[in-house]
Amino acid sequence: DKQRSILIESASRFPPPQGVKISYGTSGFRADASILSSTVFRVGILAALRSIQTQSVIGLMITASHNQVSDNGIKIADPSGGMLTQDWEPFADSIANAANPEDLVLLINEFIKKEHIPFGGVQSAEIFLGRDTRPSGESLLEAAKQGISSIVGAIATDMGILTTPQLHWMVRSKNKGTKVFESSYFEQLSDSFRCLMDLIPREDTNISKIVESLIVDGANGVGGEKLEELKKSVKSLVIEVRNSGKEGEGILNERVGADFVQKEKFAPLGFSEDDAGIRCASLDGDADRLVYFYILPNSNKKINLVDGDKILSLFALFIKQQLSVLNKEEDTDRPIKLGVVQTAYANGASTDYLKNLGLEVVFTPTGVKYLHEKAAEYDIGIYFEANGHGTILFSEHFISWLERRTNELASTFEGSEQHKAALRLLAISSLINQAVGDALSGLLLVEAILLYNGWSIQRWNELYQDLPSRQLKVKVADRNAVTTANAETVVVKPSGLQEAINIEVAKFPQGRSFIRPSGTEDVIRVYAEASSQEAADNLAKSVAEHVH
Ligand code: NG1
Ligand code: ZN
Fold first, then answer.
1. Contact criterion met (CB below 8 Å) for 103 and 12
2. Residue closest to 223 by CA, chosen among 176, 283, 183, 172
3. How far is CA 378 from CA 362, 392, 422, 521, in A?
4. What residues are labeled active site?
5. Which of 520, 521, 527 is the best mutation target for the ligand 1 pocket, counting ligand atoms within 8 Å of the beta carbon and taking the most?
6. pLDDT digits over 8-49, tens only?
7. What is the CATH number of the domain that holds 295?
8. Domain boundary among 461, 492, 512
9. Ligand (nearest to CA of 390)
10. Same domain, 361 and 479
């Protein structure tokens, strides 16, 4: 039939690379950009099918985040704005690796049957496309468009160069029936930020002390550019953007960006000793990660890192405080469930701190899809990876309760502390991206809370003291030879390896170590924590030796 011949014809224009098996990892497909066209083309087909199945708009983001500039990748946003549902991942894997157009069509037909996709009648599908600033983005965008248009009735809407969280936000908003322009994204962020500013107690004189400039490392990527844009509408903050991605400033992710800063614990290019002590932040290549840091004086640009765990802790503490003001009267029909989600990479000191606050802390494997899913089980679920990817989810049920409560308070106790706490929580729910971790919205919330508390970055950093840690990566022939359990804290295969790790860990006070195959790079990652930096380094090194 017609559909079949269109597919065969267009697929033959995107032959898969020979001898490479590509897999849907921690967050979509990633590889050297030169081998990705066929994958991106096929993901275009998948997105169209998903759109037909869900009768909603689906998003495709072309980015390789913090990877080097020659890599690229593609992530799929589901109707809610979250990551593609996990039951479709095996299909993504199999169509990406289909050897020829005939096999591809066969797989697609099987899948349509299996998932009962209402295919073949009068059908429509819409896919929003976004990409970061990588030079390979343009031709991959074209491949995605061709994949989409090879499904009858499917249309692609190019949203342009965006951060990953902007694209996810647009998909979510579109499916909720609200505005999707980039300007509406900026408006929502700046309006809710201003609302939080207006709710800061006026008599507080501490505020002026920390209204010093913030310096942001844009990783030479899309985030820097977008932050320049956002800046214009948040006049109360003084933000200086460096590594903003402008011509000639430097190379994407090369010794800059959140991943570099977090893993190396070293200031990015473009920063110097002159910046010592100043509050600095760093975004990653697609602006879904955020870390803060300050440069230590006379240290050769060593930094104190204020990572995702500490952002999480700042958020959790503030929300807990607002909730306890709101709940003073014990007049709620049921207790509000506030939960915190971390991974094994969370610094042990952060977990202790959060538990001491009386919070419920749970763990999932690495990868936002797992954290997000878990956090969605709470009224307010806060999740963060140590690397700075995270957000705060508010359940719809809780939001409608909060809206009702705010209205009640407005008519009975207008301007009371309780009323203000309710308004703050509402403002946070609209400031912080509900679809996915977002460095720009996260940054505004951090700044708002620091201003509210009258805290410097140094004061914030003192919430608790990180245990020294070390991360290493080990290149291996087949990273999938390692399998893990218990949120990746225990090695299952190869046998004997976990016992060897246990023996190493036992040699170090406060020692903790685990290994796992990376989902985005061809390596095994090693993590170690111990009571001193030297001990953490040694533990990581000795565990890594068992991996080789
Ligand atoms: P992998 O390569 O699977 O470790 C990395 C990060 C994840 C996540 C993804 C997606 C670490 C240790 N891992 O995944 O947390 O952010 O990239 O960007 O930071
Ligand atoms: Zn990223």
1. no
2. 283
3. 12, 10, 18, 32
4. 65
5. 520
6. 999 999 999 999 999 888 789 999 999 999 999 999 999 999
7. 3.40.120.10
8. 461
9. 1
10. no
Decide: 488 in ligand 1 pocket, CB within 6 A: no
Q: Under 8 Å CB-to-CB from 421, ≥6 apart: which residues? A: 322, 323, 325, 326
273 and 313 inside one domain: no
Extract the annotated binding site: 65, 284, 286, 288, 385-387, 516-520, 525
Using most ligand atoms within 8 A of CB, pick from 23, 26, 347 the residue to mutate for ligand 1: 26
- On whether both 283 and 376 belong to a single domain, the answer is no
Which one-letter DSSP state was computed for residue 274?
G
Which of 461, 486, 501 lies at the terminal end of a domain, its last residue?
461
Question: CA 143 to CA 76: how far, in whole Å?
Answer: 15
**Domain check: are 252 and 297 in the same one?**
yes
User: Are residues 291 and 420 located together in one domain of the fold?
Assistant: no
pLDDT digits (tens, 9 = 90+) for 306-324: 999 999 999 999 999 999 9
C-beta 27 within 6 A of ligand 1: yes
Q: Is 523 in the pocket of ligand 1 (CB under 6 A)?
A: no
Q: Whose CA is nearest to atom 17 of ligand 1?
A: 520
Q: What is the pTM assigned to this prediction? A: 0.95
The pLDDT tens digits of the residues spanning 90-143 come to 999 999 999 999 999 999 999 999 999 999 888 999 999 999 999 999 999 999
482: domain CATH number is 3.30.310.50
Three-state DSSP class for residue 392? strand
Same domain, 236 and 299: yes
Does one domain contain both 255 and 320?
no
Domain count, the chain: 4
Compute the distance from residue 366 Cα to the ligand 1 centre, in Å: 7
Report the percentage of the chain scoring pLDDT > 70: 97
Q: Which of 457, 150, 439, 145 is nearest to 280 (CA)?
A: 457
Domain interval for residue 40: 2-174
Binding-site residue numbers for substrate are 385-387, 516-520, 525
Q: Is the distance from the beta carbon of residue 23 to the nearest atom of ligand 1 less than 6 Å?
A: no
Please report which ligand is nearest the Cα atom of 253.
2
